[in-house]
Amino acid sequence: MTTASRPAPQRYHVFIRASADQIWDAITEPELSSRYLYGARVETTGEIGSPFRYHSPDRSALWGDETVLDADPPHRLVVGYRGLYDPDLAAEQSSRVTWHIEPDQDRICLLTVMHDHLEESPKTAARVAGTGWMRVLSGLKTLLETGQPLNA
C-alpha cells in the first residue's frame, strides 16, 4: 500500500536592503504589489480579521479573496491563500502564507515567507513551489532596492 506524499510547508528567505516599514508597505499597498506580484493589486488594511484581496491589474477580476489571520505590523502578516485566478486552484481549500520581517543591521531586513497548510491544496503547492515564490520575492527585493520592477 502506498500513500501519496503530502505537500510540505514551503519556506523562503531573502535579505532586502529596506526598512521593515518599507517591506510591510510593499506587501500591503496596491501601488507597490502591482509592480512585483504579477500585476496583482493587493487590497487590505492589514488588520486581523480584515479582508486580504488580490485584484487583477485592471481590477476586473478577483484573483484572491482571503482574510488577515494574524498581524504585527511591520513584522508579521499571516493571510489565507487561494488562487481564484485558476479554476483548479480555486477549487482547493485555502492554504496560509506568513510574511515575517526581521530587521538585521545597516537597514537590511530578512524576509521569510512560509506557505503552509497545503495538505488539501496539492495543485497550489505545485504552482507556488520552486520559482513561483522566488520570482515574487526577487521582484519585491528588486523593486525596494532599485525602485524599478524586475521585469522593467
Automatic annotation (TrEMBL):
InterPro entries: ASHA1/2-like_C, START-like_dom_sf
SUPFAM superfamilies per the UniProt record, alphabetical: Bet v1-like (SSF55961)
Every Activator of Hsp90 ATPase homologue 1/2-like C-terminal domain range: 18-145
Native source organism of the sequence: Streptomyces coacervatus
Taxon lineage: Bacteria, Bacillati, Actinomycetota, Actinomycetes, Kitasatosporales
Protein name: SRPBCC domain-containing protein
Family listed: Belongs to the AHA1 family.
Recorded coiled-coil stretches: none
